[in-house]
């Protein structure tokens, strides 16, 4: 265990030493924030006013801000978990594995060192982004999450970070150069916002597309995180006559609840799906990583 922790610490130091790499791991999240600050936010505010003409401007802005930062949080769990594995790609490309093999460190310890570092980096960076989002809401005069909601959000973030660290560890085993890793990171960072329903709400997409996206773990992770993030804002937004129906409409349109071809994707099913991703790709990733260390 000491060897694993030492290797994890080494990987963490290498990652955080590269300030440009840390910044670019957050680039997708920063782009999403910029898009909503420039024009997408106004579109969502106008759309909500059309759906809920009785809602106040402050409640609409509160909901949109909470919803956006929930998407930003989900995106960060994946992009930072992937970025953390640049250490593995660099070690592989530079031939540093030869030094590891002649040392008393076991291959399994090396593998877990990379996996654990990826998870820790994802958790740390995502919690920083999440905290920044809550501070922004507070500055805007909105309520932040309560303790129970915050605990749920942290739990979902931990689950998503673990699942996507495992998925990323499997994906990078097919890369041979740092250039290929940079290209994959760019593609993932561009596409993940759409797959998570963070750029465009699910209700604005064709039903066939919604069914496909809702079946993916990225959208399910976003759904889980949106729940505690937006709970108070949705309650304030839909208060008044017909609250239950209004709440259901808002939750469905903005991906806070999901269906796949009429089948409800419950919180329990989403959690099980992410656990399945974690277990499956942890095993596959560990197997592939150990084969590449030679």
Structure overview:
The chain has a two-stranded antiparallel ribbon. It is mostly helical and 294 residues long. The mean pLDDT is 85. It has 13 helices and 2 strands; from the N terminus they run H-H-H-H-H-H-H-H-H-H-H-H-E-E-H. Strand 1 and strand 2 form a beta hairpin. It is elongated, with a radius of gyration of 20 Å. Helix content is 79%, strand content 2%.
Count the strands?
2
Q: From the alpha-carbon coordinates, what is the Rg to the nearest angstrom? A: 20 Å
Major sheet details: 2 strands, antiparallel
How many helices? The count is: 13
The proportion of residues forming helix, as a percent range, comes to over 70%
- Distance, first to last CA: 22 Å
List SSEs in N-to-C order: HHHHHHHHHHHHEEH
**Uncertain regions: pLDDT < 50 for 5+ in a row?**
none
- Globally, the shape reads elongated
What fraction of the residues are assigned to beta strands by DSSP?
under 5%
In round numbers, the mean pLDDT is 85
Structural class: mainly alpha
Biggest sheet: strands side by side, in what order? 1-2
Topology, element by element:
Blueprint: H1 2-17, H2 19-25, H3 27-51, H4 57-84, H5 86-94, H6 97-101, H7 107-139, H8 147-171, H9 178-195, H10 207-214, H11 217-237, H12 243-253, E1 258-260, E2 263-265, H13 267-292
Antiparallel strand pairs: 1-2
Helix pairs in contact: 1-7, 2-4, 3-4, 4-7, 4-8, 4-9, 4-11, 7-8, 7-13, 8-11, 8-13, 11-13
